[in-house]
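Q: Could you write out the predicted structure for this multi-component system? I'm mainly interested in how the pieces pack against one another.
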Amino acid sequence: MVDVHPRPAAGRPTAAPGGPRGRRHAGRREREHREEVAGLLFVTPATLGIAVFVLLPMVLALLLGFTDADGFGNVRFTGAENYRRLLTDPLFWSSMRTTALYVVVFVPGVYVVALTMALLVNGALPARAFFRTAFFAPYAVSLVVVGLVWRYMLADSTGVVAQALRGLGVDDPPSFLGDPGWALWCVALISIWFFVGFYMIILLGGLQEIPTETLEAARLDGAGPWQTLWSVVLPMLRPTTFFVLVLTSIAGLAGLQAFDLIFVMTQGGPANSTSMGVFYIYQQAFKFNNVGYASAMATVYALALLALTAIAFRITRGGRFDHAD
Amino acid sequence: MTTPTRGRGARVGRAVRLALATVLAAVQLFPLLWMLSGAFKDAAEIRGAALIPANLTLDNIAEVFTRIPYARFLLNSLLTSVVVTALLVFLGSMAAYALARLRFRGRGALFGVIFATLMVAMPVILVPLFMVVARLGLVNSYAGLILPVSFTAFPIFLMRQFYLQFPRDLEEAADLDGCGYLRRFVRVVLPLSRSMLAALAVTTFLSTWNSFLWPLTVAREAELWVVQVGMSQFQTQYGGDWNLVMAASLVAAVPTLALFLLLQRQIVESVKASGLKG
């Protein structure tokens, strides 16, 4: 791991108060000691909390995956039994497939829409502040509320979406949340709708970093808006783009936002078509009390996330997205 | 010759951009407006297609508060969100300051470990976290709602980036006065990072208020339900009564929407900071 302290420790003592040479040396050593103690004290509360509530569960998940723990205190070591069971569990495989499908729709969907919004808000546009607020607004509401509102809107035949479709001449609007062919699409699209505002702001930050002289130079060279976008803006936006893609991939894979939506809207159905990994793990653990088995599945997901994070970390040389290329 | 065409092209381009922005804004806002409208419709009209209710009624909101202890849920959410925000912001920035500015052994390694937990998602550690919390005897308690989500890597990561760029002379002025490290942190560093802390606090409050999975898992008794959990349970009971469900949704959404409208600048700043300096 690369340490990225911007300023070396040298140079600091110059600010030390003047005085006899000997006293200053002793004072410095004492101060270094006090600094060390203070530093340790400062990090202790947060570190302890993270150790108990993040690291310990991570380790436990790994261990429990090799047991038949049932959540009532019965724990027996069963070796790789859970992992063998995973391989032959059709619901596990279908949850992996569902998760993958979700990520494949969610990640590019968020990027394209959020970038469109950021470009619109960054350019000459009347009522820019209003549009920015409007684009971001869904993100200020909870996913439980979002799930309920969309369920109301997507209700079979009586929902406003079905009514609108009938008005447009679609005689028999689909049952959006009742049809296995539609439900996952709805969950993915609603997730996109919810998150685009957040990523628009991040992309906007990236766009505003591009020097206006560069854009001006492109314009003077006779580049049209599309050409400028392709050959100037997008290449210069690459670090931000990369950051957004990594973040959305992780969020999608971990099912951060999808869980709440699935819980409220579909409970994993119809026919398990929206039962993403995190939801299936939750069911196994808290509905069927298969804590050991759920932990094994969680471990598989954690490893996938870890691999993704490690790759991102490597590419960005320690999380410095702004210097990545 | 080229100037007029270019002028017209720019005008057309502007119109297209405005049209696209309007469509996107409508898509983003309509569901929220539809919730607002549904909350004030009566049962007879709730399945209708009108955006403005014909018979505007406040009964739904009153019903929500009488049928379930919704006020209690709101209070639980408020308490949880405030305490989590205070803990995360204060302890997180304290650790971040030490990691950025104070020299002590193992600092690099510690930051590496904290960074590694940055991407650990709640759903993945949910089951063992619940077991840890159960073993600590915190299930069905406010401590159980609050503590497990009050220690995450993100605030540390964000504030460390901030303190790395913090002007050094300001602290050193305090050093000359002989302030202790804690006093210096509380009296000098914290006030100088006010805007960043405010931004972090707003987003932390929003995300805690809106969180669902952990409160759902840890609070088994209704007295401890936060508003998101209460609402999801309400919906399973009164699922068909969309006017009541929308009223409950509106009440849950109003605090965060209001906060967002009032403190938009801070929120935008914090989101940008998390992206740019990431």
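A: Regarding packing and overall arrangement: The domain at 90-275 of chain A is CATH 1.10.3720.10 (MetI-like fold).
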